[in-house]
Specification:
By secondary structure, this protein is of the alpha/beta class. It contains six helices and five strands, in the order E-H-E-H-E-H-E-H-E-H-H. The protein has helices at about 20-30, 50-60, 75-80, 95-105, 120-130, 140-145; strands at about 10-15, 35, 65-70, 90, 110-115. It has a five-stranded parallel β-sheet, sandwiched between helices. Helix 1 links the parallel strand 1 (about 10-15) and strand 2.
């Protein structure tokens, strides 16, 4: 797998995704990234909005340049994170959707579904998302349109 430039990465999950989160934390640390785990630490029932808001708020404020959120399907974390103006959270199901999330939408939060993806697919998606560059151009125009006030 390709290595990307090392940066701080925040990661958070719900109880359903603690095992995948632990795998990703180790993988990213082994790649030289500074990974900050925002919780939870155990499989005890945990409400995903609490952890999604914590990570999205930290990305929105600039504390972290990017983050990874994981829950059972990824849907709830996506909804939660995208409520923050400075967050572009994208739910990825494979390496292709992770690549497009970055290349076309400059996603600064990658969202994964632990009950949907196998470990290998999740690792590939994270790796591709971290190494893909935003293409800008017409894609930036579209992002600007999203940010326009209604």
């Amino acid at each position: 797998m390709k290595k990307s430039k090392s940066k701080k990465i925040a990661i958070a999950s719900d109880h359903a995704a603690v095992d995948l989160k632990k795998t990703l934390v180790k993988y990213l640390a082994d790649q030289g990234h500074q990974v900050i785990d925002l919780g939870p630490k155990s499989k005890k029932s945990a409400h995903y909005p609490k952890f999604g808001k914590k990570l999205a708020g930290a990305v929105d404020s600039g504390e972290f340049p990017r983050g990874i959120l994981i829950c059972g399907t990824g849907i709830g974390m996506s909804i939660t994170a995208n409520r923050f103006r400075g967050v572009r959270a994208a739910l990825a199901h494979d390496a292709y959707t992770a690549r497009m999330a970055k290349a076309h939408n400059n996603a600064n939060v990658l969202v994964l579904g632990a009950r949907v993806l196998g470990e290998g697919v999740a690792l590939d998606a994270v790796d591709v998302w971290l190494t893909t560059k935003f293409e800008g151009g017409r894609h930036q125009e579209r992002l600007d349109m999203i940010d326009e006030e209604c």
